[in-house]
Specification:
The chain is an alpha+beta fold. The chain has 2 domains: 70 residues, no CATH class; 73 residues, no CATH class. It is globular and about 50 Å long. This is Transposase.
Length: 159
Amino acid sequence: MMVVGSPDQAGTALLAGEIPCPHCSTPLRPHGHSRHRTVRGLGQERLTVQRRRARCADCGHTQFLLPAALALRRVRRWLRRVPDTHVHWLKQQAVKHAFRLNPDKLVRPKQWLSLLGWHLNIFAGAALAFNHRASVELPPWTVIGHFTRDNILSPPLHT
């Protein structure tokens, strides 16, 4: 599964051969859609989605293109049990992206009671700087998900 910011832009990039296979780097090609699914949105709303499917001609792997807004549903649960090694990794990623986009964001970041809050605040600043620079209005968690390659999220719990 690959997380994309905008399904429309990802579809255009897929048709142009601009999305590489994560396994062998060959350009992915469109390969239909998944079945319709009803999922929870960012609020209480329910959304019916049909994810785009892509297939690699060389290695044969199939990827689903998941809109980033749908991948960010388990953040709160993950934040409660985050280990220290992840907090330090978050700091490295946050500072790297914030500095690359807008070095002034690191001059006086807001103080938080925990290191995790401080690092997530830097990520939020980097997300806002990215939106400003790219002239887009993506939700901050969507941009943060792209910065961290969705490693900030816990895997789904199977019950």
